[in-house]
Each structure stands twice: as structure tokens, then as C-alpha cells.
Amino acid sequence: MRAATGQPEIPAGIPEGLTVGQVARALNMKAETVKGWLDSGALPCWRVVEGRGWRFVCLIDLAQFADRHNLPVNWLALV
């Protein structure tokens, strides 16, 4: 679903930064698949500690990535 702005609509109550596991659950994919997208730069992420540590994906980046690749997002899996 899209908001009036043309951006994908993201429900309230979802954390701003999503872990690999959360992204995988929302897309119904394996974590290894998500890690591959992060490693290749196809899906942007950020880290708390540069070069190591957990990677996080911003909500809008996930929404736009899923929209570009026609992937359904189960936002309710994140609430």
C-alpha cells in the first residue's frame, strides 16, 4: 500500500532500525539471503560499531527495497 506521498506505507509501532532477523521475518526469507543483500549493498544498512557488530536496516530502506523488487512485507511480524 502507498501513502499519498507515493512512499510505501509503514504502520506505526515498528522499530526504526531492523536487525537481519527482523528483516528476514518481515520478508519471509532466510537470514542468509538478507545478509547477502546487505553484503552486496543492494539493501542499505548501518552498524553501531563500524566494520563489525549488528547491522540495522532503516524502515524506509526496507520498504523501498521491497517495493522495487515486488516483495511483500509482513509489517505485522515486526509489531
Per CATH, the class reads Mainly Alpha
Q: Return the CATH architecture.
A: Orthogonal Bundle
Give the number of DSSP strands. Answer: 3
Number of helices: 3
Structural class, by secondary structure, is: alpha+beta
Secondary-structure element order, as H and E?
Answer: EHHEEH
The CATH topology assignment is: Multidrug-efflux Transporter Regulator, Chain: A, Domain 2
Mean pLDDT score: 87
Largest sheet: 3 strands, antiparallel
Q: What is the domain tally?
A: 1
Global morphology? globular
State Rg. 12 Å
* Oligomeric state: single chain
Cα end-to-end separation: 18 Å
Q: Main attributes?
A:
single chain, three-stranded antiparallel beta sheet, globular, Multidrug-efflux Transporter Regulator, Chain: A, Domain 2, 3 helices
